[in-house]
Amino acid sequence: MATPSLRGRLPRLGNPRKPILKPNKPLILANRVGERRRDKGEATCITEMSVMMACWKQNEFRDEACRKEIQDFFDCASRAEVIGGPFHSTKARKVVGAISLTLREKRGPKDEINPGYRRIWEFTPHETQ
After folding, report:
1. Distance CA 66, CA 109 (A)
2. What is the distance between the alpha carbons of residues 58 and 43, in angstroms, rounded to a whole number?
3. Are 44 and 38 in contact (CB under 8 A)?
4. Residue ranges of the alpha helices (H) in the chain?
5. How many helices (H) and strands (E) does the chain have?
6. 27 in a domain, yes or no?
7. Residue 20 resides in a domain
8. Fewer beta carbons within 10 Å, N or C terminal of the chain?
9. Per its UniProt entry, which superkingdom is the organism in (predicted)?
10. C-alpha 1: how far from its chain's center?
């Protein structure tokens, strides 16, 4: 026998027109979608960072070719810092700092840059704040 919570969802043998599910809210779409709040520690600027990295990879890590994507990423990072987003965490600050340091130093050819990026993006265990 079905439990009381499932009783309303199961079809009745006597009445085949009875709906299988009883919605608790009207089945209509809302006119707008609510603003979703980010959880503490949730990443921002991921899209900008991935576009910037893809541009670098396509253009053999030349900053001149990806100037717009780099600027978009830094604008997003500065907005996230002002809002108090996840860029106040230690690990995120290290990553953004390493990227900006690399961009400012202009290290040289691709062979010298790639090992540096591997060190930046290596998986590290969760660090305490």
Report:
1. 16
2. 25
3. yes
4. 4-7, 46-58, 67-83, 90-105, 110-121
5. 5, 0
6. no
7. no
8. N
9. Eukaryota
10. 46
At residue 21, φ and ψ (nearest 5 deg) are: -110, 140
Domain that holds residue 95: 46-121
Total domains, the chain: 1
Tokens found for residue 115: 């090992």
Query: Which tokens hold the place of 7?
Result: 């009783």
Q: What is the mean pLDDT of the chain?
A: 68
Burial class, 37, CB count within 10 angstroms (exposed 0-12 / middle 13-18 / buried 19+) = exposed
Closest CA to 101 of 109, 91, 93: 93
What is residue 44's DSSP assignment? Answer: -
| CB-CB contact of 77 with 49 (8 Å) | no
DSSP 64: G
Domain contains 18: no
Its sign, for the CA torsion 40, 42, 48, 49, is positive
Q: What is the pTM of this model?
A: 0.39
